[in-house]
Write a structure and sequence with these properties.
The chain is an alpha/beta fold. It has a single domain (about 5-185), classed as Flavin prenyltransferase-like (Rossmann fold). The protein has helices at about 15-30, 40-50, 100-110, 115-125, 140-150, 170-185, and strands at about 5-10, 35-40, 70-75, 95-100, 130-135, 155. Bound molecules: flavin mononucleotide.
């Protein structure tokens, strides 16, 4: 039997809770184990954008998705003893969806002050896939510099920037466009969006 693939999913306080929930759902449906780390602003944005109030331990976040939830583990932001904070724990990669400019900056300068930042730092140093989904516009020179720094360090900077050539019919189609690219970057098989024909 092949081992379950294990990913860290960070959710921060940028707009786009739908991207986070759909990524969580898609990873869970793919049978992955997910270590979920949500910043306090991230929780606030999820609440604002879904209209729901979440439990303090976020145990009910998984109820917002349509997928098996037994492989979702919650990581507290102050739990530096968590497996996600250690390079010796084996993970297949990490995505931060959506990624705020604050978290982007913290990861870019290696100055993390929570378990999510530390997990991203570890993912980079262990040279595992790190996918960051920033959502901000317009971008300042500081944002752009941080993104360049991260791309040079090996991260995939994948802005929440859906295309329109697949003729989206709904907001869900636009969300799936971005989430499909996140899963592709993590190496997780998915058929969220019809692919451009390969000749
Ligand atoms: C409703 C709401 C929407 C926000 N949207 C964004 C955003 O799209 N991008 C961003 O970088 N910050 C956004 N912010 C600001 C971040 O939440 C704030 O910088 C916070 O400190 C980020 O912390 P975190 O990275 O630990 O989640 C938003 C804040 C709120 C309340």
């Amino acid at each position: 039997m092949t081992a379950k693939r294990k990913f860290i999913l960070g959710v921060t306080g940028a707009s786009g809770a739908a991207y986070a929930l759909r990524t969580l759902e898609a990873l869970a449906r793919a049978g992955c184990e997910i270590h979920l780390c949500v910043s306090e602003p991230g929780r606030r944005v999820v609440e604002m954008e879904t209209g729901l109030q979440l439990a303090p331990d976020l145990s009910d976040l998984a109820e917002l998705i349509d997928a098996p939830t037994e492989n979702i583990r919650h990581v507290a932001l102050d739990d530096f003893a968590s497996a996600v904070c250690s390079g010796s724990a084996r993970f297949d990669g990490m995505a931060v969806v959506p990624c705020s400019m604050r978290t982007l900056g913290a990861i870019a300068c290696g100055h993390g002050d929570n378990a999510l930042h530390r997990a991203a730092d570890v993912t980079l140093k262990e040279r595992r896939p790190l996918v960051l989904v920033p959502r901000e516009t317009p971008l300042s020179a500081i944002h752009l510099r941080n993104m360049l720094e991260l791309a040079r360090a090996g991260a995939t900077v994948l802005p929440a920037c859906p295309g329109f050539y697949h003729k989206p019919q709904s907001v869900a189609d636009l969300v799936d466009f971005v989430v499909a690219r996140v899963l592709d970057a993590l190496g997780v098989e998915n058929e969220l969006v019809k692919r451009w024909p390969e000749k």
